[in-house]
Amino acid sequence: MQFIDRVEIEVAGGKGGDGIVAFRREKYVPAGGPAGGNGGKGGSVILKAVEHLQTLLDFRYNRRIEGENGQRGGPNNRTGASGGDRIVQVPVGTMVYDATTEEVIGDLIEPEQTLIVAAGGKGGLGNKHFLSNSNRAPEYALPGLEGEERFLRLELKLLAEVGIVGKPNAGKSTLISALSASRPKIADYPFTTLVPNLGVVRKPSGDGTVFADIPGLIEGAHLGAGLGHEFLRHIERTRVLLHLVDITAPDPIEDYEMIQQELAAYGRDLLNRPQIVALNKMDACDRTDEEIEAIATRLNELSQSTTPIFQISAVSHQGLDPLLQDIWTTIDRLKEERDLIQNLSSL
């Protein structure tokens, strides 16, 4: 399935039904009088977040979405039927922008959350509405109003608590496949991962935590180099960053610093996220213990981490349990801090 995370679409609410001009002429209604009904309301276009979608691919082939038009009013004061709303499913994590003004219209981050993006037009008034003491037989009615029209940009930002970042071929896809049931494409060359991969990793309590494997970053990613510019947005929502550093690379320290520079250049407060650093591919490392220790010490200094740099092998599952334990501890601590802030703000 093709992964599409940004599209532009046009949405239009349905037109309201016209009001009509009609009069009561039955012999058993001696007073008669105006009896034209109002038109029905036009249907709205509504976006609904659902969990089973993970791409905006469907919008590539359906760029204009319209609500149903309302029906015109009827005689005997009958109101026309309202047009049906058009409910369109989008993945959880979809942000909606006005493509013209760049205004954020909504952020669909909860399953079943809905957002009206184009309201239907009001129905026109029938001549019954204009009856007055000075006008006992109005012979005019109002047409229905056009529905709201908008050009929108939809951007999908994946919802994951842990975002895995690192240079191409650092072993991110291998790690997510080792920790979860996800089976991304894996090969021994850079840029194997062309789209973000999600995997659910089970905690000891049985709860699932979503990990996101972000395509590899290279220098200049925040400016559009490589694939990083397209997918950096997917780590904006993550609560913890897991930074994988390839211990077999010529200069792991330089690789680490380059990724940090790209995160800082992209902004969005990414560098202030809790970050856990792990040296990967320990099973294939031919460096001496002293060299490895020197690299880990330097990374500890650069990251200002209070925990040691983890040494793991995603292929052989070496060192994954201590790494996961630190991730769970960090997530639980962040949750406690968030709950405390919410409780204080509610006082």
Record field, number of beta strands: 14
Structural class: alpha/beta
Query: Any low-confidence stretches, pLDDT <50, length ≥5?
Result: 184-194, 221-228
Q: Report the mean per-residue pLDDT as an integer.
A: 84
CA-based shape: rod-shaped
Walk me through what this model shows.
- The structure is a single chain.
- By secondary structure, this protein is of the alpha/beta class.
- The protein is 20% helix and 22% strand.
- The chain is built from five helices and 14 strands.
- The protein has helices at residues 172-179, 228-231, 252-266, 289-303, 320-345, and strands spanning 6-12, 45-50, 64-66, 86-91, 94-98, 104-108, 114-118, 149-156, 162-165, 197-202, 208-213, 240-246, 275-280, 310-311.
- The strands form three sheets. A six-stranded mixed sheet has the order 10-11-9-12-13-14, sandwiched between helices. A five-stranded mixed sheet has the order 3-1-8-5-6, with no helix packed on it.
- Helix 3 runs parallel beside helix 4.
- The longest helix is centred in the C-terminal third of the chain and has 26 residues, at 320-345.
- The chain is rod-shaped and about 105 Å long.
- The protein starts with 5 loop residues before the first strand and ends with a helix.
Outline the secondary-structure elements.
Layout: E1 6-12, E2 45-50, E3 64-66, E4 86-91, E5 94-98, E6 104-108, E7 114-118, E8 149-156, E9 162-165, H1 172-179, E10 197-202, E11 208-213, H2 228-231, E12 240-246, H3 252-266, E13 275-280, H4 289-303, E14 310-311, H5 320-345
Parallel strand pairs: 1-3, 2-4, 9-11, 9-12, 12-13, 13-14
Antiparallel strand pairs: 1-8, 2-7, 5-6, 5-8, 10-11
Helix pairs in contact: 3-4
